[in-house]
Write a structure and sequence with these properties.
CATH superfamily of the domain at 6-188: ANL, N-terminal domain
Strand order of the largest sheet: 2-1-10-9-11-12-13-14-15
Largest sheet: 9 strands, mixed
Distance between the termini: 48 Å
Number of strands: 25
GO molecular function: medium-chain fatty acid-CoA ligase activity
Structural class: alpha/beta
Domain AMP-dependent synthetase/ligase: 15-347
Radius of gyration: 22 Å
Helix content: 25-40%
Domain AMP-binding enzyme C-terminal: 399-475
CATH topology of the domain at 6-188: Rossmann fold
CATH class of the domain at 6-188: Alpha Beta
Number of helices: 14
Family: Belongs to the ATP-dependent AMP-binding enzyme family.
Strand content: 25-35%
Pfam family, one: AMP-binding_C
CATH architecture of the domain at 6-188: 3-Layer(aba) Sandwich
Shape: globular
Length: 483
């Protein structure tokens, strides 16, 4: 048993009046956070599970820390979820109450659930934080792309292992000040973006709503690290040519990290050219927290997610489960991982849990990748939606999307496969053109891709769209394209 937050429980040093959290103009010191979280913990200690209405507020952070301190599994709820999805999550997880901002208006599915308003000025008994490492800490629901969302039960050891591994990879310390504008119902924003700084004894500044102006302001006034998703970095790249303050702020940052989806190489290069700083990428998912990352002290290589984190075993396998031994940068296989960062089960879904693991404990991620000779991992897409088998080749959609984004006529791009009587599957490109009045045609784009990659990777069909459908984390919803 060990504390998740030594700075809050007094196990390491005395954080005292140092800022822990800032949301806009609202700031909490470590002393204030410890007192308010202790009050929450005292009120919910007898609960089996507790829901958290996960708005981007101080109250959400206090509620989560309080639940962890009480040893009660927290279920973060996405405030943008529809009634049907919320109803499913509440029925499945059966929380005893919901923790929320006192000013929040809760939707109909939460009406019958006891409500506990979080008071950030309250105090409680001395904060404890010593539940068993195997105890459930969070139940985070997946996006539900293949059916109703599943609740991934994340133990305390997984949170500790991931955050400590990232501290090693990113040289993350209590002196770092993190800025981000990520939602707090997901692993990226909540575990990495809130619990990460608190475990290190550092601080986090949440933007509330992301903007390049907000990033520039925070990075130029003491923040050292930026977390974002590709859509955020794309907006930053677009703003850089006309915003010298943003250029200066990014150039002075210690670490720029992108995750939740692949950052297009084109945006990597635009940011590096303007600021001299490279964005590093990492790879994880709800069930595994973080698996790999580019290290702060190594080469930031666009298009890759680095090497396995300390404590994480990673392998690529063929369709039949045979491990791929070659690190040749070309052999495509499914990523399987094993380590202390893994979830323990899908709540109430023993069938899905059993199907997710091999007999010897490897988790089947469903993500396809290649590995370079030096171990760097490059994701090429999801097995279900991004692996295209065409003309006898296994092709990852991701590298074709990156190639398309290098065309000056393409603003956004997604690639899928569709049945073809000759090839098995043909490659389909979904394009948001830079100039809707003069979109690039299929022949032009096919030639562009064939020159950069290989002829068998060229798109055979091109659709022009006004926008690509994306979820809250910026991921393209490919099933919606075909629907």
């Amino acid at each position: 048993m060990s504390s998740l937050f030594p700075a809050l429980t007094g196990d390491v040093g005395d954080a005292g009046d140092r800022p822990a959290l800032r949301f806009g103009d609202r700031v909490m010191t470590y002393t204030e956070l410890a007192a308010a979280a202790a009050s929450v913990a005292d009120r919910i200690r007898t609960a089996s599970r507790i829901a958290v209405w996960a708005t981007p507020t101080l109250e959400t952070a206090v509620a989560t820390v309080g639940a962890l301190a009480a040893g009660v599994a927290a279920v973060p709820l996405n405030p943008k979820s529809g009634d049907k999805e919320l109803g499913h999550i509440l029925t499945d997880s059966a929380p005893d109450a919901v923790l929320t901002d006192p000013g929040a208006e809760l939707p109909a599915p939460l009406t019958d659930l006891p409500r506990i308003d979080v008071d950030i000025h309250a105090t409680g008994p001395a904060l404890g934080d010593d539940a068993d490492d195997a105890a459930p800490a969070l139940i985070v629901y997946t996006s539900g792309t293949t059916g109703p969302p599943k609740g991934a039960v994340i133990p305390r050891r997984a949170i500790a292992a991931t955050l400590d591994a990232l501290a090693d990879a990113w040289q993350w310390t209590g002196d770092d000040v993190l800025v981000h504008g990520l939602p707090l119902f997901h692993v990226h924003g909540l575990v990495l973006g809130i619990l990460g700084p608190l475990r290190r004894g550092g601080s986090v500044r949440h933007l509330g709503r992301f903007s390049p102006e907000g990033v520039a302001r925070e990075l130029s006034t003491g923040a050292t690290m930026l977390f974002g998703v590709p859509t955020m970095y794309h907006r930053i790249a677009e703003a850089l040519p006309t915003d010298p303050e943003l250029v200066k702020a990014l150039a002075g940052a210690r670490l720029l990290v992108s995750g939740s989806a692949a950052l297009p190489v084109h945006d990597h290069e635009r940011i590096a050219a303007a600021t001299g700083r490279r964005v590093i990428e990492r790879y994880g998912m709800t069930e595994t927290l973080m698996n790999t990352s580019v290290r702060a002290d190594s080469e930031a290589r666009p298009g890759t997610v680095g090497v396995p984190l300390p404590g994480v075993e990673l392998r690529l396998v063929e369709d039949d489960g045979t491990p791929i031994e070659a690190y040749d940068g070309e052999s495509v296989g499914e990523i399987q991982v094993r380590g202390p960062n893994l979830f323990t089960e899908y709540l109430n879904r023993p069938d899905a849990t059993a199907a997710a693991f091999t007999a010897d404990g490897w988790f089947r991620t469903g993500d396809m990748a290649v590995r370079a000779p030096d171990g760097y991992v490059r994701i090429v897409g999801r097995k279900a939606t991004d692996l295209i088998k065409s003309g006898g080749y296994k092709i990852g959609a991701g590298e074709i999307e990156n190639a398309l984004l290098e065309h000056p006529g393409v603003r956004e791009a997604a690639v899928t496969g569709e049945p073809d009587p000759d090839l098995g599957e043909r490659i389909v490109a979904w394009i948001v053109p830079a100039d809707p009045q003069s979109p690039p045609g299929v022949d032009e784009l096919a030639d562009h891709v064939a020159r950069r990659l290989a002829p068998h990777k060229r798109p055979r069909v091109v659709h022009h769209l006004d926008a690509l459908p994306r979820n809250d984390m910026g991921k393209i919803m490919k099933r919606a394209l075909h629907a």
